[in-house]
Design a protein that fits this description.
Largest sheet: 4 strands, mixed
Oligomer: single chain
Distance between the termini: 38 Å
Structural class: alpha+beta
Shape: globular
Strand order of the largest sheet: 1-8-9-7
Bound molecules: zinc ion
Length: 692
Amino acid sequence: MRQAKHRFFLAFMTVSLPLAGALLWAQGAGRGGSSSSASGLELSAINRSVDPCTDFYQFACSAWTASNPIPADRSRWGRFDELQERNNDILRRVLDQAALGREPETKKIGDYYASCMDEPAIEKKGAAPLETEFKRIAGLTSLDGLPELLGTLHGIGVGSFFDFGAEPDFKDAKMVIATLDQGGLGLPDRDYYFREDVKSVETRSQYVDHVAKMSALTMPVRGLVEKARFDDATSAADAAAVMRVETALAKGALDAVSRRDPVKVYHKMTTAELQKLTPHFNWARYFRAAGAPAFQSINVAEPDFITAFDQLLGSTSLDDIRTYLRWHLVHASAVILSSAFVNENFQFYSATLQGTKELRARWRRCVQYTDSDLGEALGKAFVKEAFGADAKADTLSMVKEIEASLEQDIDSLSWMTDATKKQALVKLHAVENKIGYPDRWRDYSALKIVRGDALGNSERANAFEFKRQMGKIGKPLDKSEWDMTPPTVNAYYEPLQNNINFPAGILQPPFYSAKADAAVNYGGAGAVIGHELTHGFDDEGRQFDAKGNLNDWWTPEDGKAYDERSSCLVNQYGSFTAIDDVKVNGKLTLGENTADNGGVRLALMAYLASSAAKAAKELDGFTPEQRVFMGFAQIWCENRRPEYERLQAQTNPHSPGRYRVNGVVSNMPEFQKAFSCKADAPMVRQNACRVW
Ligand SMILES: [Zn+2]
């Protein structure tokens, strides 16, 4: 259940965090999904005492935020969480049925879910399921054995020291090559190891406490393996060692803003060149242990990080290395071990870092893990229940209309020369789209699921996925694969494939409903489609061409004009306060903000050009244009805990919902006109930004 998302995966929102056991999941009863209004807008969410021209988000959402407090087991609660909750209810029904074991087709997901739900069995085992890997780690008696050990640990999903996987070659995207990247940190981002403000210093000390507590929980099994006795001092020393190792790794790691630049994370070299970087680590043996096929060249995303890794090996005791590996094994396994591990993991990653008050109910967690590990087997059953041919056809026609709007938009740009426009259209016309679910479902027959072995199932699922990734190296790219499971409430653009992807999970109310007014569907699902399409042309996406290759198709003057327009957005969003003294990071969120701004404009253009708009009248007290903006704004109604707000501002490329709404509409003369805002109204920016 520990899937690493690759770097340039541009999602509509962040629904998961790089934190074990801290994934967001729904809670509460959910609210039915269908609005009682004629348009499909949530009229009860609106606060009419607020002037839409003063604060559009507050107008569209603040009655909702007032009546929808964050459930105790959540760090955030928004309207898309309500939707995910409804999808989860379907998944739970499917899994409860499958767990009875009557249907051969759903036996695997049923066994997986039933094993995860069997709390008494998991409780009884305690830390014992760690024994095999603890023995393996204890068997590391010289640095010479590290390549084999890491190959094995990575193979079962234990992140440590670096990430190894498969990825399209940036400069020849039709082929998949091996890739090495930074990894092996327990805090959310490399900057967490170095920030000196009071809050950050406190977080580090809480992290060290957490590592010590986890270490203490493993002492019984470790004592057995190492035939020794341990005490609190051992745990404290363990935590200090982990912090030393991770800080050294973090020093060599790139920051999140730099990692958005594809040029900074593409360093293709031969395996011989890679070997020269690390006198202390033998790559050929590691690749063999990891089960990789033979290959000659590899993308070493961050050579400086690999050098730092080698220096660390040269200057760190074997004791510290074993301690670090034990920690990452426990960290990666915690959520599926006994309650002592689950609770301690929750305490740091959910309570401390995100402000969540309570652990999520077991079934919610088990639904989530089944989705992570057997997503396409579970998704197949979900699609049967929740996604019809009509929704697919409707979405497809909306995609076509929005693509036509972008074509028109590109044609009309005053700042772009004809040469670049021509190339932009070539790229646009090459965008492929995938809607709902895969044409061909993943075959899990090689994955063994054993009833009663929850951790083993998780490790075997990770091994299955790792092997699948290894199998791609050296082969042509398969664009039909999905990076999200069908029930997911999200969407993405993949620059290395130049395609947009919309899981069935998001093509539901409030994003889309066959019964809703077209204007509201364009404001919801239409804005998501426009957002993903615009990603192909944001500051990152624009560096890739129609075939997904990192290849500059811009004239220098157009590139410069683009950067000037982009920097307007950097300044605008960088001026928004996330929480207390923490601002939104304008550079980190630039791609998403560009996509949000472009997305709404394209959705509005497409709506106005549609047949539905021709005959549209006022509905629920709103004009058709107003309903497009309202449909968009109401996706983002949400409440966030302060701790979550801080974490997101420091790690998430997406802005908070309120700025995703107000940041966009305040840049749009179309909004000003639709709501008859005065020229000096707060929702009318004097220096409106516009890229697309
Ligand atoms: Zn996005």
